Amino acid sequence: MPIITLDMGPLTTEQKERLIVSFTRDVCEVTGMPPEAMVVMINEHSRENMGVAGRQLSKMVNGK
């Protein structure tokens, strides 16, 4: 059973649903496996707990 994992900042419920649908569809298309075999896990992280290029992501998003 494939497990697709995405780690990122906060998402809306709609965004999560769209990602789950698209990841499942795309992986099934490429692998030929049935949707029932797919597990999608979305791990949300606070932007305060993420950094890019040595800067805290919450400060980059808020323009500081």
- Strand arrangement in the largest pleated sheet: 1-2
Radius of gyration: 15 Å
How would you sum up the global shape? elongated
Q: Helicity range of the residues?
A: 25-40%
Give me the strand/helix succession.
EHEEEH
Tell me the distance between the termini: 43 Å
Number of helices: 2
Taking the sheet with the most strands, its summary is: 2 strands, parallel
Uncertain residue ranges: none
The average pLDDT is 93
The total of beta strands comes to: 4
The chain-level structural class is alpha+beta
Query: How much β-strand is present in the residues?
Result: 25-35%
Model description:
This protein is an alpha+beta fold and 64 residues long. Helices cover 38% and strands 25% of the residues. The protein contains 2 helices and 4 strands, in the order E-H-E-E-E-H. Helix 1 (13-31) links the parallel strand 1 and strand 2 (39-44). The mean pLDDT is 93.
Topology, element by element:
Elements: E1 3-8, H1 13-31, E2 39-44, E3 51-52, E4 55-56, H2 57-61
Parallel strand pairs: 1-2
Antiparallel strand pairs: 3-4
Keywords:
two-stranded antiparallel sheet, alpha+beta, 64 residues, elongated
Give a concise summary.
With 64 residues, this protein is an alpha+beta fold. Helices cover 38% and strands 25% of the residues.
